[in-house]
Design a protein that fits this description.
- By secondary structure, the protein is α/β, with parallel strands linked by helices.
- 42% of the residues lie in helices and 20% in strands.
- The two termini are 30 Å apart.
- It has a ten-stranded mixed beta sheet, sandwiched between helices. It has a six-stranded parallel beta sheet with strand order 13-12-11-14-15-16, with helices on both faces.
- α9 packs parallel to α12 and α12 packs across α13.
Length: 467
């Protein structure tokens, strides 16, 4: 295998495990190949300064970043990526801003990435592009003459064909995916949506399982569910900071059963629906009052966007209403925190919880579900209540799967989780942990790169001169 070149909107130093799962997954390959990680610096600068490429060395890995102008940040990042693609890919057509003309900035930044990345490339490089910000990047690289093998992985869901087709220029977006040699998705459902779209809208011809031909190119596509580093998270769970958190939670809630939710504040996470289900639990089951406490962490996210302000106010109102209607002097049903919690402390919180509520309305995977499981004591594990609309539900069938839109049935599942006997909890947990270990983040990385290496090179005809 040649050198690995990773391209993503934001980069991370692979030497720092706190950088997150993607950095952990890619660190071994990047270090082994003396790889390159390319992306946005996170800085917004005057338009005249955006041409500079910032390069630093992280051991054997080269980190290269570019800045964005304010106009490009507004149109590429806030506008098209998060104002159009994010809501549509999470099935929220009502929140998409289709009329703002952001697509020009989206294309411009992808062209900028291609121009700035090209001089760094070597003939035998393997290029791995990540996520919805950079869907057209391979097409822009092909237009500049790039012939290296290029793979793309979508970390968020892909919607059904008719929802995807609501995007103005949707055909351009999907045509751009055919510039890749391999396209990866989180779930089989997403892969099926891709197949449905390219066959009905792009009139692509299935070549064989996992391969479609259109626009003079054949693309390979597959489901590669991302995992966590189970051993790394287990070590984090046993570290001092996590154990201190665990002991504090166990002492403080010694007379309660603790439920936990950890999410970014985002309309895709189903937080108001979760609170309504918890309210339904308390209303219908008086025995849970004073015995169950929900700790809900909602980390700040894109707070300058009106949709996030609206959901923040709705969530705060629901938490206040539940506490006002059901709380006692010595017990509050909900402890709500609108701030970040250090990653080193979260395993202790997970381990102390009897139930985790992971109930997004739509999610590509959701690694909180997997981290909760990895943090549990196998002898006395907690129960995962998981939305059937999270990508993780395809793997974690032994969780209590719920429809987050149905408050009554979700409340019933929470009650079942609180009352589940230890023998059943152990059986369910052991089965899910087997899956987590088999399909961990290293499997994900290795499986994708092996499939990319096996993808047969196809002709790059004149259709790649410009999309």
């Amino acid at each position: 295998m040649g050198r690995l070149v990773v391209v993503s909107n934001r980069i991370a130093d692979p030497r720092k495990t706190a950088a997150g799962g993607l950095a952990v997954a890619l660190a071994d390959v990047l270090n082994a190949t003396g790889g390159l990680w390319f992306g946005w610096s996170g800085k917004v600068v005057d338009a005249t300064d955006e041409d500079e490429v910032h390069v630093q060395q992280a051991g054997p890995v080269k980190l290269a970043t570019v800045d964005l102008s304010q106009a490009d940040y507004d149109s590429f990042y806030l506008g098209y990526s998060n104002g159009v693609l994010w809501p549509v890919f999470h099935y929220r057509l009502d929140l998409a801003d289709f009329d703002a003309g952001y697509i020009g900035g989206y294309r411009r930044v992808n062209q900028l990435f291609a121009r700035k990345l090209l001089p760094f490339l070597q003939p035998d490089d393997i290029i791995w592009v990540h996520d919805y910000h950079l869907i057209p990047l391979a097409a822009e690289l092909r237009a500049l003459g790039c012939r290296q093998r290029i793979g793309f992985f979508l970390h968020i869901p892909l919607p059904p064909p008719l929802i995807l087709a609501a995007i103005p220029g949707h055909d351009w977006l999907v045509r751009a995916l055919f510039a890749y040699d391999l396209v990866g998705f989180q779930s089989k459902a997403d892969l099926n949506h891709f197949a449905g779209y390219v066959e009905t809208e792009a009139h692509a011809q299935p070549v064989e399982a996992g391969r479609w031909r259109a626009f003079g190119r054949t693309v390979h596509a597959g489901a590669f569910p991302i995992g966590i580093d189970v051993e790394e998270f287990t070590e984090l769970t046993n570290a001092r900071e996590a154990m201190d958190m665990y002991e504090r939670m166990k002492n403080e809630y010694s007379r309660r059963k603790l439920l936990v939710g950890v999410d970014r504040l985002d309309y895709s996470k189903g937080l108001p629906q979760r609170m309504r289900a918890f309210r339904e639990l308390l209303a219908r089951n008086p025995e849970t009052r004073k015995s169950a406490t929900l700790i809900q962490i909602a980390s700040p996210s894109r707070e300058n966007v009106s949709a996030y302000t609206d959901i923040l106010h709705e969530l705060e109102a629901l938490c206040g209403s539940i506490n006002g209607n059901f709380g006692e002097l010595d017990w509050m049903p909900v402890r709500y925190m609108h701030r970040n919690v250090a990653r080193a402390r979260l395993p202790g919180l997970y381990r102390a919880a009897r139930v985790a509520l992971v109930t997004p309305l739509r999610d590509g995977m959701n690694l909180v579900a997997k981290e909760f499981l990895a943090a549990q004591d196998p002898a006395d594990p907690g129960v995962l209540v998981l939305s059937r609309f999270a990508g993780a539900a395809e793997q974690l069938r032994e969780a209590l799967l719920v429809n987050p839109y149905d408050s009554e049935s979700t409340a019933a599942a929470i009650l079942l989780a609180l009352q589940m006997p230890v023998e059943e909890r152990r059986t369910r947990h052991a089965s899910m942990m087997e899956s987590l270990r088999r399909y961990d983040v290293h499997w994900w990385c290795d499986a994708f790169l092996a499939a990319l290496a096996d993808a047969r090179a196809e002709e790059k005809g004149p259709s790649w001169l410009r999309l």
